[in-house]
Amino acid sequence: xxxxxxxxxxxxxxxxxxxxxxxxxxxxxxxxxxxxxxxxxxxxxxxxxxxxxxxxxxxxxxxxxxxxxxxxxxxxxxxxxxxxxxxxxxxxxxxxxxxxxxxxxxxxxxxxxxxxxxxxxxxxxxxxxxxxxxxxxxxxxxxxxxxxxxxxxxxxxxxxxxxxxxxxxxxxxxxxxxxxxxxxxxxxxxxxxxxxxxxxxxxxxxxxxxxxxxxxxxxxxxxxxxxxxxxxxxxxxxxxxxxxxxxxxxxxxxxxxxxxxxxxxxxxxxxxxxxxxxxxxxxxxxxxxxxxxxxxxxxxxxxxxxxxxxxxxxxxxxxxxxxxxxxxxxxxxxxxxxxxxxxxxxxxxxxxxxxxxxxxxxxxxxxxxxxxxxxxxxxxxxxxxxxxxxxxxxxxxxxxxxxxxxxxxxxxxxxxxx
Length: 418
Hints:
Strand order of the largest sheet: 7-10-13-6-14
Helix content: 25-40%
Number of domains: 3
Radius of gyration: 25 Å
Shape: elongated
Strand content: 5-15%
Number of helices: 18
CATH superfamily of the largest domain: P-loop containing nucleotide triphosphate hydrolases
């Protein structure tokens, strides 16, 4: 407008991408989505962008572009007219990421700790059941710390999602650790998956991309809301359509569900439960079969006993120790899957898994009996095979053995308890 009015030379804005919101007082206000906008500008061949001063650190995460920070419209006019040039913004050192909760804080629950390790190693979804105080939330919160730190490309991808959502923490322009999202069970479908009445915003599932989506008290979520997760979890993307257009976001997150075994949620377990068998069945049926079918690992956590509490003086393994094993297992899977475009065992289609990496028939006897008895579907068998490969990777074996298949089957059928 200023160029058209003759206040600035007509060619003054040429080659610039101008981003931001202009206030009535002439200030240039920060906006959401600066990082993906700058990335798009670079892909389109632009090499200079002007952004609000409050967005400068975020924009400077992108390599190969000069970021000019403007605090007011006057700053931009002075730059374009040559009176006072804006210099490219130099981002300061990134702050150290916050420390992660330590797995060593979890008392007892050896099966739960094992399940979290397996979930991290193979990218498997996880369902934890148990009474209040058993450690379901503690275990879920420690899963991101077992995952590898995000590389540069992954960090930019995750940060871009949080930029659009407006959830970047102040002073921390880059998300370098796998995110952890834990929406309340009162969250709407739009809050969980994404939406909005105006600009489309990513929901908790998308914000958990390359990290963990934790749904505590999962049966309290509306069943229809939970079922909207099924296809995005399979595809790794979600498309949100509104009258003004549509947007597609990546959402390759690990799902962790947690639930009490019954509505009364007695901390003492079954012995003190006041629920009838019918009430327990109704409560547990709130999670649909198709959703549960996508969960590879299911573990029931018992109440923490006095004996387990007293035995906690013997320090269990720390997050750092378990994360080191997870990293080795992930590398083994990546080496095996090289050339397929996949990196995690949980991503391998069942048919490809059976054809390229068959498990010895001698190791499959227990799983085949479960299939014959109707305890396991063919799809469920594929998921057991995936977990078996992850267990083999964790233990340094080149092929799963019968013990791996048995352990994977126990986790699938929720017959594993700590």
